[in-house]
Amino acid sequence: MVMNKLNGVIYKTQPYKENSRLLQVFTKLGKxxxxxxxxxxxxxxxxxxxxxxxxxxxEYNTFKSFLSLKSAKLINDFDEIKKDFNxxxxxxxxxxxxxxxxxxxxxxxxxxxLLIETLYSRNLETASLSFALKMLYYLGYGMNLKSNGNNIIxxxxxxxxxxxxxxxxxxxxxxxxxxxxxxxxxLKISEVIEIDELHLKSIKxxxxxxxxxxxxxxxxxxx
Length: 223
Fold this sequence. Notes:
By secondary structure, this protein is of the alpha+beta class. It has helices at about 80, 85-100, 110-120, 125-140, 175-185, 195-215; strands at about 5-15, 20-25, 30-35, 55-60, 65-70, 75, 150-155, 160-165. The protein is elongated.
């Protein structure tokens, strides 16, 4: 029997039966639940592999939503992230989104590439926020941030984009913050440069309330 190999990131784990663990894994083919049999045993070869925020590879015959973990290998345990609580919470934003939203299968590969780019970024905070903003477009809630040439006064959650002089929308980000928002939204994750710390705080708050307003989704990682 010919086996296929696939890489994925474990975004959630839970105990299963007496000694096993269920791994929620995101791959370029979509979400899959892997049954890591016996992985809670001390002497299990899969014990180290079957952990949250691990990038792994595994083999399968036919891709299904529920599979047994077979021939698993650890690609990256992101130990430098896990050793730092703040870094772990920062990247948990991307994993929480993967867990909570329904992703159209046509976008799985692109979103997986964005996730990997985020986890390997040297600036995890800007990368994670950029991931969350880019995800909005794949989920059908992307903002209209392209200027029509009129005088911009900020960005509005209610309007879902840029607000121009004379428009009567509440302003959630001022002009300078909106410029930072544009960079995070449209630049590649690897291209995003340092963003002003105060702008990042405002954009975090903006993203939290945007997801809550548009999708009724409260992101714990941004609380």
